Amino acid sequence: MASIPRVARVRATPGFAAPNDVDSKKMSLAKWAIAGVVVGGGIAGLLGAGSSALAAYFARRIITPSVRESDQEVLAVVRGDTGLQVILAATPDTTADGIFSLFFAGGKGFARIGRITSYSPAERTVQREVEEVYSGDLATARRGWWSGAVYDSPAALGLESEDVQIDVDGGKAPAWLVRSEAGKTAKVWAIMVHGRGATRLEGLRSLRIARELGLDSLLISYRNDGLAPSASDGRYGLGSTEWHDVDAAIEYALAQGAHEIVLFGWSMGGAICLQTSDLSRNRHLIRAMVLDAPVIDWVNVLAHHAHINRIPYAVGRYGQLMLGHPLGRRLTGLAAPVDLKAMDWDTRAVELRTPTLVIHSMDDEYVPYGPSASLAGKNPEMVTFEPFHGARHTKEWNVDPEKWEQAVRSWLAPHLQPRSGPPSVDDSQ
């Protein structure tokens, strides 16, 4: 049985980080524990008050948007033979080959980081080229966070874009519209859906291949991402609510002349795309999906995070039950329960009828690749699995952009060939 003090000492992992402020660490654990007993009855009684509080804490962290943790140490910025270089504490992220970015100064600073120039395992440092500083003074940075989002706007790729607004619940969500050909509207549009804790910057890596394939691209924002209006409860729905904002983006694209849609999704954005393909009234117009490190089964992901945070299995399971139980709203703050079973696409594999390419690194530390591979194995007619190695989470493009773009090109191009007739509408609509 976990003691109550351990709730504030749970080891943080990206995206499920423990809060940094002292007040958050001193949450009303007794209140949560008592409420947990009421909601869970015998289960909570068996777990004990301390474990109930930990389960509630875990559940809330999953669905509560939070500020990114500056967990990457910046040691120095130097002038090398090829230009500006940065010396960083060596981590599994910073020692990976490829192109990445460093956000610093609380996210106000943003730099694109290139190849490794030196690496000292003994000193635990790595030196890398700085390709571009988009904002902030990197020389003053002491800490930041590592990211796969390497461009600050379509302009950084030499592409023109339009700032558009999409009508969503609660107001308007900003998006970038990037045309494949100036002055013309493509018949098929790509809608880029970023992941949990990320922004529309994440989708910029896919713009070149989308334009090459003749797609107009809409890089959207959605509830609780800091750009779009927040949800009424201020909580993530893990895809169960966010898909409405993607559906609104589809409506916008259709109103602008699009005939069909390709969804691109990263991490939780993949879960959102899957929900959209299942529930949208426009699902028959979704020609295909390209999902990068998607959440196929939330129960698997939450169990993984409970394990790496050293949360006992029963406590993690109880946290999941809180998310899905109507009475759990008193603990989680959710406006409505989250149906994790409905978002288990490993179990529902044969129900997926939209052609889907899944790209996933075998060493993903955040969203295990197993359900992605399993989905493809259970539904090979609809799902193609493209494994990567050494990319960790959602950074497959970063470690090998040529492979990523070739995988998308070779798979998606045939699916964009003209149909012999109009898209079918199933009887359930």
TrEMBL record:
One Gene Ontology biological process: proteolysis
Signal peptide segment: none
Keywords linked to the UniProt accession: Hydrolase, Membrane, Transmembrane, Transmembrane helix
Domain of life of the source: Bacteria
GO terms assigned for molecular function: serine-type peptidase activity
Peptidase S9 prolyl oligopeptidase catalytic domain span: 234-416
Residue ranges the record marks as coiled coil: none
TM annotation in the entry: 32-59
Family annotation (PANTHER family): ALPHA/BETA HYDROLASE DOMAIN-CONTAINING PROTEIN, XAA-PRO DIPEPTIDYL-PEPTIDASE-RELATED
Protein's UniProt name: Alpha/beta fold hydrolase
Species: Arthrobacter terricola
